[in-house]
Fold each of these.
Amino acid sequence: MTSRRMAKLVGVLMAVAGLLTLVASFTPTGRADGTQVNFSFTVVSGTPGADRIILTGDGKFNSAQVVGNGTFVHFLAVGSPPLPIEGAGTWKARRLISFTSIGTYGPGVSGVLLMEVDLVPNGGDVIPATMKVVCNIAAGGLNTGLPEGVILDIPGGTFSPFGAGLTFFNTGVEPRR
């Protein structure tokens, strides 16, 4: 192989490697810096004597999109157990609206995630909603200024604060072999 052909081949290989690096940095599983933020929560809305929701969820997001889902149970906090269930089902993330990071503590990230979700009641029609997930990390001195938990806005009402429970964002990604 001539030195001219070799130089051309090296140039093409470098261009392909650069393009692959650029594409990999914007994959659905990573932000431009190659990391993703994971989230998980289990919370209960906190207004006694009214409609309440138990909400669970997990997923991941980057600067461009969110992927996540979970379950919900909507019940009336009246009388004695078993409390009457108004509806139950699943939810799925539809669109990332925003994420504001306050800072990190170990693999934990304190911040506010805002996303559009679809609630899918068992045997019912899909209900569009907005979900705000707030994570404060007291041990790291990281506070968003909002109460820890989830706020769920649905047509006709808001369920908040979801203070009984736990929310957590983290950047820990398990290496795969």
Amino acid sequence: MSRAKKAADRIRADLSMLEVLADYGYKVHPNGGDREQSFSCDLHGDGRDSRPSAIYYPRTNSFHCFACSRSRDTITLVMEKEGLTFWPAVRKLEKQYGLPPLPWEDDDTPDAPRPPTPGQQVTTVLDGQGTVSWEQASGRVEVFLRGLGEERTLDPSLVVKLWEAYDKVRYLQAEKGLAERDAAHLAMKVLTAAKEAAGGVAGGADG
């Protein structure tokens, strides 16, 4: 398992996003328990959100903003609020909330993509994954997931999971040096999963 995934998993498991949201001034109840909470998100448009458009999901310890058409965990929230990349955001959270840095271990290596199965190879050809760049793939995924958020055709918690899967690919590409070709392949797999979940609804994405 990569060091980045270990760090992200530890923060998601040990640190309540509600506490971080409250510390940033969002109107949530830090001791709200296992219930969903709606609140205003300032990460889109002019930063004003008169009608609360974000929902916190305790099961995934993350939130989805329907105006942004974007899901965020604690790390991505700090990255956007502070203008930080992945590791500085992790270190800020560790320091601020008293989480000791993870020790280095022998298996702290990037997650290597698994060889595609024959079925995945067919999907790769059909979706054109072999010729899609990382920029093109990431753009397609973001457009499609935003469309799902706007249409609200899927359970929001599933949309959150799809965004988390895409965000993990971004972490690996930006922070762990995953080759853009491999990152594009993984991003297109997220897109394929999203299309299958949507039952073939285009959601605004091409392809």
Amino acid sequence: MAKTIPPATLEKFRQFFKKMNVFMLWMWRLGFRKWLNICPPLFGRILVITHIGRKTGMKRRTPVNFARIDGELYCLAGFGTLSDWYRNLQKTPQVEVWLPGSWWDAVAEDANQDARRLPILRQVIKDSGFAGFAFGVNAYRLSDAELDALTQDYRLLHLRCTGRRHGRGGPGDLAWVWLIPAGAALLLLLSRWLG
């Protein structure tokens, strides 16, 4: 059976993933959403949840790994109730879900009591790429009993789409930024060609 991660190491992982999430969100907003999902076995399947901060009331965005099972979306809060975004969803479960190819309104529902918890959880971890292994959870080899013991603190969420679709793909509101260096490169090439 795999060993549990010491609390100090877990906190370092939490801080690392917070920083990684900032990078992932910028990449998403710059228009690289499909590139972020190009190699799920390695990097995982990634969506962005737009949620409301429980203290500030402001919009927050969190990239998370997910699995699509029987047409439904599931994700995990690997840090359990320590995850700010998870606590935000407990207060306000209405969210926006940015997928690589679509953008939906959804409701986040606790799925920890679902009779299919373990198979769903196993698939979400498999679809999380390196993240599962980073936490010492090999969803390909662990027995159900071992997986259950290691993931007791994890929170499984069902992101139930409510049917209101906003458009194609999650927002890439900063994708226009690439026009600036592309335009500058084009001007430089033209000036050299004409000069």
